[in-house]
């Protein structure tokens, strides 16, 4: 038997490892097909399992196979080096494997003082659990031996240590981080050319650890989030970590970031390899981890998650849960994120059925979920807003967007429009616009089908612009156009009457004007009709002024008529003035205008003719005045 002190090392020949002791091997240990040609004495003195195997066998050249050895041949080689007294190094990357291998080989202190199991345990507790970097590395390397690591409480202790460090100032843990922008000393001070400057940088960021934990497997990530939740870390921070993890391993979620920062924050002193992730399992795990909260960016993430789930074909339970979560906060969703393409064999372009189910969840949700508090994840969310009207506007825009699909059936449009109550839409302009787009994309629809769709519109809730457009829309059925015109006149009369009542109240000398809330709401609700009412008031004032002017002209005409009658009576009893002058022997002196020969006299105007001419001129003036009306 070869003493451990004379062993200089090990060398490999093909799939066999040999000890450089100069003595023939008396035991061969097979681990995952790799043979280790060793000596019994150093192994039996340290390993309880090997000692028991040797006791049970009487063969001189023993061959034994270690099934399911933790860490495989590489970890077994470390344990063998320890048994032979050779130098072996424990690191955060191999400590979990060595710890589990020592437990497998039963390398307790009863088989040798300061044995490998106690040495591994001390290194794990004194070095790994007090350092963020080492905890991450240890957890990432524990996947192959997860069952035995669970038995030894290694995973639980690492997760607990990480969750504790997340709750504390990261500058206290003694490792450099990229988040500070420059390298730090173990004490948290800035280093300049390797010299400790003493200056410390404090960071208020709460997402410095997102990138680091994203290298963990899905199972470990899930357990870490649950551990952090138990420690009382705020939901919005946990959701941020979950969203970061999901976007890293689900590339389809990259576009649904809703303006969040894309900076990568990680520990600078070590590198990690990304975990191998089953995307279906990841989506189902994320769905279980997400809290029942509401936020704009959170809802956008849920919609992106549902989109990827529809592509990958996850379980129906997971899809139903995502649709329910989205429905409970549909008022903060965006139109772009609701446009789910159809990934199965279907004629339509968009998954309208999915949106219909989401609306159903929105209407059937009795208790509204609360927003994140404080609203750091989504500062734009306003929980005091009216969710029903926001959803109605969103759905109207959604119908208008999908209406151009030539294969979309009319009943789908009707189901989407009627899924919300009447009170959700103060105006039906959005519905009218959506139906107009649908009619334009489906010119082959019959008049009956068009009328059935138009029945979902309340024409009394159309604005003046929508009414003006609808009254001239050749795509609408004639009966619908007549109804629009009828309600247009009704609304105009109602608005005019309401405005006149308000103006009469304003002109009254009584105390302060009080407009009935019902009438005020009616006027405000009619949007553009108040402009028409004001124009009619101006027209009414013009008509009053014209009426008074007509009265003045009539009085003037009557005065002129009476004067004309007097002049006619006074001249009817007298003959021509020239004849009277001849009778009395007087000769009239001709005027300058009468210097022409006698025919001009005979052709000159008589007093009656001049009076008739004046009358005609007055009449023409009167007619010209009346021509204004």
From TrEMBL:
Residues in BTB domain copies: 25-92
Residue ranges of coiled coil = 536-570
Instruction: State the residue spans of region: Disordered.
Output: 588-629
* Biological or metabolic pathway of the protein: Protein modification; protein ubiquitination
Work out whether the entry's keyword set contains Protein biosynthesis.
no
**Which family is this protein grouped under?**
Belongs to the NPH3 family.
> Protein name, please?
Phototropic-responsive NPH3 family protein
Annotated organism of origin: Populus tomentosa (Chinese white poplar)
């Amino acid at each position: 038997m070869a003493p451990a002190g004379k062993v200089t090392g090990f060398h490999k020949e093909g799939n066999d490892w040999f000890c450089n002791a100069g003595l023939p091997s008396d035991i061969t240990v097979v681990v995952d097909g790799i043979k280790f040609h060793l000596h019994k004495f150093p192994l039996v003195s340290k390993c309880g399992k090997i000692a028991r195997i040797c006791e049970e066998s009487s063969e001189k050249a023993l061959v034994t196979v270690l099934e399911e050895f933790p860490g495989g041949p590489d970890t077994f080689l470390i344990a063998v080096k320890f048994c032979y007294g050779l130098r072996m190094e424990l690191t955060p990357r191999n400590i979990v494997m060595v710890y589990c291998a020592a437990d497998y080989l039963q390398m307790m202190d009863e088989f040798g003082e300061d044995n490998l199991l106690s040495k591994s345990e001390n290194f794990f507790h004194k070095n790994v659990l007090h350092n963020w970097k080492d905890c991450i590395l240890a957890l990432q390397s524990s996947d192959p031996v997860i069952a035995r690591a669970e038995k030894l409480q290694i995973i639980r202790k690492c997760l607990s240590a990480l969750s504790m460090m997340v709750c504390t100032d990261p500058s206290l843990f003694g490792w450099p981080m990229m988040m500070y922008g420059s390298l730090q000393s173990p004490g948290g001070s800035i280093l300049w050319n390797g010299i400790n400057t003493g200056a410390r940088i404090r960071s208020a960021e709460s997402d410095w650890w997102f990138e680091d934990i994203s290298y963990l497997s899905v199972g470990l990530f899930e357990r870490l989030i649950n551990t952090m939740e138990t420690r009382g870390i705020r939901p919005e921070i946990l959701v941020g970590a979950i969203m970061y993890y999901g976007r890293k391993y689900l590339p389809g979620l990259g576009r649904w970031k809703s303006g969040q920062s894309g900076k990568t924050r990680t520990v600078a002193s070590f590198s990690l390899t990304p975990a191998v992730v089953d995307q279906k399992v990841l989506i189902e795990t994320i769905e279980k981890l997400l809290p029942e909260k509401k936020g704009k960016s959170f809802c956008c993430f849920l919609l992106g998650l549902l989109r990827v789930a529809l592509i990958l074909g996850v379980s129906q339970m997971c899809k139903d849960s995502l649709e329910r979560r989205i429905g409970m906060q549909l008022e903060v969703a965006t139109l772009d994120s609701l446009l789910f393409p159809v990934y199965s064999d279907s004629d339509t372009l968009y998954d309208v059925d999915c949106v219909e189910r989401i609306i159903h969840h929105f209407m059937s949700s009795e208790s509204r979920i609360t927003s994140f508090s404080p609203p750091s994840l989504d500062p734009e969310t306003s929980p005091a807003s009216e969710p029903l009207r926001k959803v109605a506007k969103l759905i109207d825009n959604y119908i208008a967007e999908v209406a151009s699909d030539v294969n979309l059936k009319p009943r789908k449009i009707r189901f989407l429009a009627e899924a919300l109550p009447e009170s959700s839409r103060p105006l039906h302009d959005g519905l009218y616009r959506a139906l107009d787009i649908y009619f334009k994309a489906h010119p082959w629809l019959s008049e009956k089908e068009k009328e059935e769709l138009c029945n979902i519109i309340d024409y009394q809730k159309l604005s003046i612009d929508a009414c003006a457009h609808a009254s001239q829309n050749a795509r609408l059925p004639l009966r619908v156009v007549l109804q629009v015109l009828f309600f247009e006149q009704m609304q105009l009369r109602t608005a005019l009457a309401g405005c006149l009542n308000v103006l009469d109240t304003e002109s009254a000398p009584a105390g302060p004007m009080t407009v009935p809330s019902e009438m005020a709401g009616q006027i405000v609700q009619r949007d553009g009709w108040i402009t028409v009412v004001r124009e009619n008031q101006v027209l009414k004032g013009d008509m009053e002024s014209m009426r008074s002017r007509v009265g003045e002209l009539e009085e003037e005409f009557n005065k002129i008529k009476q004067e004309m009658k007097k002049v006619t009576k006074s001249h009817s009893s007298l003959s021509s003035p020239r004849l009277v002058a001849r009778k009395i022997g007087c000769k009239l002196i001709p005027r300058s205008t009468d210097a022409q020969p006698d025919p001009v006299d005979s052709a000159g105007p008589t007093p009656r003719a001049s009076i008739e001419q004046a009358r005609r001129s007055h009449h023409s003036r009167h007619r010209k005045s009346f021509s204004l009306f």
